[in-house]
Amino acid sequence: MRYWAATLAWASGVGVHRIRLGVTTGDSPATRLYAASGFRPTGEPEPLRTGSALLAQNLELLL
To answer: Does the chain have fewer CB atoms within 10 Å around its N or its C terminus?
Structure first.
């Protein structure tokens, strides 16, 4: 977790104001990790790719 905190501190220091990423909706460990770091869902889950049964949820962190 200390690498994650250092990465966020670096991003903020170079002027990044928002970080966005996507996780598959069934990926609970990743979702929990990002939520604990302050990421929040944006929009509705969408298919991971055309024709895929997997859904992806976009997450966003404002720095």
So the answer is: N
